[in-house]
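Take the subject:
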Amino acid sequence: MAAIRCAQLGFKTAIIEKYDTLGGTCLNVGCIPSKALLDSSEHFHNAGHTFKEHGIDIAAPKVNFGQMIKRKGGVVKANVDGIAYLMKKNKIDVHTGVGSFVDKNTIKITGKDGKDKTITTEKVIIATGSKPTPLPFAPFDKKRIISSTEALELKEVPKHLIVIGGGVIGMELGSVYARIGSKVTVVEFLDSLIPTMDGTMGKELLKVAKKLGMDVFLGHKVTSLQNTGKEVALKAEDKSGKILELKGDYCLVSIGRRPYTDGLGLDKVGIETVKGQIPVDDHLKTRVDNIYAIGDVVRGAMLAHKAEEEGVLVAEQLAGQKPHINYNLIPGVVYTWPEVASVGFTEEQLKQAGRAYKVGNFPYKALGRARASMDLDGLVKNSSR
């Protein structure tokens, strides 16, 4: 989005991308493919659990997992092809390879063939995104100990999928596989699911997960994870020191993501990361006056739409405009069913800030429309000043 807005504003624009397709994590191995599988698995779940109540009689549905994955791939291709078209439409030069700084106005691009070329520029926007964070004692082997990337490309439906991390990614992908027949066990270090969101929503999602047949262990620290060949073996302990032992055929590690700045040559321009992030000011400018950074490599939520807004902000600033982002108005969504959606302050944040507030709740089971569609789980909550 940063490149498109720059081009629209009259800048000669180039984009450097390490991979063969554009669109980053969101379109290739994140938001879009996971939502495709979430939608497919929800159709299957409804066919087996709610169709009869609606008066729709069908034979017991079967999962064609290969077709689910194939459809997901088609969705991804259509989206990334669309991004490629937008680059051509906006006359943006696309360079495939790894970009790294030679100096603040010179970028080296190393292609897959190992050959280098350089381009010069007046302004640079770093938007290299993030990568899944591995456990320090059990790196991803991409076979049994997997990240969200591999979870989107499995060749079989797991018999028992262990999920480490009860955040957005863990709960979304865990629900995909729970719906299509996997036993799913979630192990979360903190005392709530989706711990960065409102606590009430975490409690509601826990109820939904259990109704779906998922086992959830909160307040457990994973101490050991091993690939033993045909399965994985996990050990975790709760706050009292009691040991939990689990075995499954796959383990999805979804404990968060880390900014991806490897190989950028930030040292060549005097930029140092802080806790993995690139420090920026309120205008998203780094300590180097012509270099900006946006998205997952800077502070704030790791959300694609947050990164897009930041890209537009930088582009418009470079054109002399005065854009503004209110980060508190950026929504967050967990695409389970029901979905968890939020915007603004959580009750916990208001309480921590010492602000006076009122809470209003309305359960969906009291809503006629929700009863008509058999969607009775969850509630609407408002915490306002």
